[in-house]
Amino acid sequence: GRSGAIFHFPFGRRVNDALARAFAFQLGKEVGSSVRISLSDDAFLLTFPSRLAIEGIADRLMPKALEPLLRKAIINTELFAQRFRHCANRSFMVLRNYKGREISLPRQQLRTSQVLEAINEIDSFPMLEEAYREVLYDAFDLKNAQLIIDEIKNEPFKTNRDKELVRNFEIANTELRLHKILYKKECKKKGVYIGS
């Protein structure tokens, strides 16, 4: 079985995406396997093998500097590959058209991966830096994510393993489904169509 940790961070999707990927990257290194991310505007869920001790997880996951960690976390993601391909197209390192013929997307992706592999060995290649900037500051909100990390370090926050809370959530969810079923039956009796 797998376990999960829910982080109730109502800071928006871009901030939560940055934090979730950073935390998942660190947790993945700790457990030696991949960590799944489920994400929303108000929270994110990290799902991992159950052999991990949940106590002190928040303290273990808080990075000092978020940007270097996120750079490592995103380098092999589809999001980074897509942003890098756009940068490569704009800088004419990977062409969309050649001699009046359109180059197929799979061929562009292949050439982009070859270019990325070649320039990865160079410390700060401008096109690579632009791809990182697009992901970290346009797709994610790195600035505010770092502010939140700093704020959390200054003020301790609560870790909750309350099984009663989970049970109450399940009960509320079940009640909601029952009310929906009863409402549908009532509407059906009255001849009102409400859809699925």
What's the layout of helices and strands?
Blueprint: E1 2-7, H1 13-31, E2 36-39, E3 44-49, H2 57-61, H3 66-74, H4 78-90, E4 97-98, E5 101-102, H5 105-119, H6 126-139, H7 142-154, H8 163-190
Antiparallel strand pairs: 1-3, 2-3, 4-5
Key descriptive features of the protein:
single chain, 3-stranded antiparallel sheet, mainly alpha, 196 residues, extended
Entry summary:
The chain is mainly alpha-helical. 59% of the residues lie in helices and 10% in strands.
Describe this structure in words.
- The chain has 196 residues and is mostly helical.
- Helices cover 59% and strands 10% of the residues.
- The protein is built from 8 helices and 5 strands.
- The chain has a 3-stranded antiparallel β-sheet, covered by helices on one side.
- A hairpin with a 4-residue loop joins strand 2 (36-39) and strand 3.
- Helix 4 (78-90) crosses helix 6 (126-139).
- Structural class comes to mainly alpha
Instruction: Write down the Rg.
Output: 22 Å
Strand order in space, largest sheet: 1-3-2
User: How many H/I helical runs?
Assistant: 8
Low-confidence stretches: none
**Helical content (DSSP H or I, runs of 4+):** 55-70%
- Give the percentage of residues in beta strands: 5-15%
Name the helix and strand elements from N-terminus to C-terminus, one letter apiece: EHEEHHHEEHHHH
The separation of the N and C termini measures 32 Å
Mean model confidence by pLDDT: 80
